[in-house]
Amino acid sequence: MDIYYNGIIYLNDEKTTKASAMAVEGGLIKAVGSDEDILAMASDGDTMLDLQGRLVMPGFVDSHLHFVEYAVEKSFVDLSSAGSLEELLGMMRERLPEALEKNKPLRGFSFDNNYWEDPSLPTREDLDGLSAEIPITVRRTCHHVTVCNTPALEICGMLEDCPDGILNEEEQNAVIEKLLTFTKEEFKELILDACSDAVKAGITEVQTDDLEYMRKELYGKTILDAYMELDKEGRLPIRVYEQCNLPSADRLNAFLDAGFRTGYSTGHFTIGPLKLVADGALGSRTAALRKPYPDDPSNYGILNFTDQEMEELVDTAHRAGLQIAIHGIGDRTIDQILNSYEKALRAHPGADHRHGIVHCQITHPEQLQKMKELDLMAYIQPIFIRSDQWIAEDRVGKDLAATSYDWRTMTDMGIHLGFGSDCPVESFDIMPNMYYAVAMKDPDKKTPWHPEHAVTMEEAIRSFTAEGAYASFAEDRRGRLVPGFTADFCVIDRDITSLSPEALNEAKVIMTFVDGKRVF
Ligand SMILES: [Zn+2]
Question: Do 209 and 64 meet the contact criterion of CB atoms below 8 Å apart?
Answer without folding.
Answer: yes
